[in-house]
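Appendix B. Chain record.
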Amino acid sequence: MKNTVIRLMAKFSDGIGCTRGLAVLLITLFISSAPATEFSADEVKAVYLFNFTSFISWPDDTFSDELEPFTYCSMGSKSAVIEPLGEILLGEKVEGRAVQYKTISSLSKLKSCQILYIDQQQKVDVVEILSAIADASVLTVSDIDGFAEQGGGVEFSAKAGRIKLLINILSIKKSRLNISSKLLRIAELINSPDEGNERW
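Structure tokens predicted for this chain:
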């Protein structure tokens, strides 16, 4: 993990309160516009995965009680993204909840995740995975080409040496997740309603 990323996250991770959302958006914009040689693709993806919790909210019935942790998951064997993500998540909380990470191998356990990352290196059936959590409030994220078009929530797309976001609005809505217009503004939207993206 580059020291620059650690310093950025540390600077905005304590005692900022209501300004934290803006801070992490600025971090995201900085990371996404930085030269390709400055940060690895895995580091950029890890920062995005962390920042999503500042711009996306989960329904109240997602958690069984106030002590249940917020869970990041990866599908299959450990992804290279998880190492930098683990450093960022260390000591962090989401809406007052402790954060944990799990490697998931069984479809039956996917609903225990709030954010599910599917690495392109994994040989998985995307349709089968999305079907298994069709009625759950799980944010699905992947760098698999065409993931958003297949019904995934967020796709990391590498274009011109940058990591861009593709967001499937219909998928996010079906998962009962609320997403900030600030995040939508920096993404390419798929299945977006004609009336715009501020309210849907």
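Further analysis of this model is presented in Appendix C.
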